[in-house]
Write a structure and sequence with these properties.
Helix Hairpins; 2 domains; five-stranded mixed beta sheet; alpha/beta; Chitinase A, domain 3
Length: 166
């Protein structure tokens, strides 16, 4: 079985998604199917077919999450003691040469990766180039759209932008 790496936060988000799918989405779609059945002939009932299709997506996602969470290895980045090195779970603040801008990414597992949230998979080309490097290092790697260059500005165990001020 393939090992699934997750951060602590990622594991919690996926557990919550699984709970929501089972406790809210599944019962809602079952009710929608029952209501659509009440409308008569199922062969030409668009509501019924749409609800059955949605049920298939929900059940597929539930099955996927159950299997992956069962084999997940949850890693707390704060316990890795990275000593300034980029490791799984750390947040990396970078200067992007091509975009002439600053970007911040967290190195996470494939299942929790979401570029819109700044979360990149540990197996992505950029993450592979960053892992093991420290602040001040420059990295260059080949992405699908060409060669990219970054300078590492900072490496943190938490995202300063979202960390609470205790």
């Amino acid at each position: 079985m393939t090992r699934v790496l997750l951060t602590t936060d990622g594991s919690e988000r996926l557990q919550e998604e699984l709970r929501r799918l089972k406790r809210e989405d599944r019962p809602q779609i079952i009710a929608a199917i029952a209501e659509a059945r009440g409308h008569g002939d199922l062969s030409e009932n668009a509501e019924y077919h749409a609800a059955k299709e949605q049920q298939g997506f929900i059940e597929g996602r539930i099955a996927e999450l159950e299997v992956k969470l069962a084999s997940a290895e949850v890693i707390d980045p704060a316990r890795l003691a990275p000593s300034g090195k980029v490791v799984f779970g750390t947040w990396v603040q970078l200067w992007e040469e091509a975009g002439d801008r600053e970007v911040t990414y967290q190195i996470v597992g494939e299942l929790e990766a979401d570029i819109d949230q700044g979360m990149i998979s540990h197996s992505s080309p950029i993450a592979r180039a960053l892992i093991g490097k420290t602040s001040g290092d420059e990295v260059e790697f080949t992405a699908p759209d060409g060669t990219r260059r970054y300078e590492i500005l900072a490496v943190r165990c938490t995202n300063v932008e979202t960390a609470s001020n205790d």
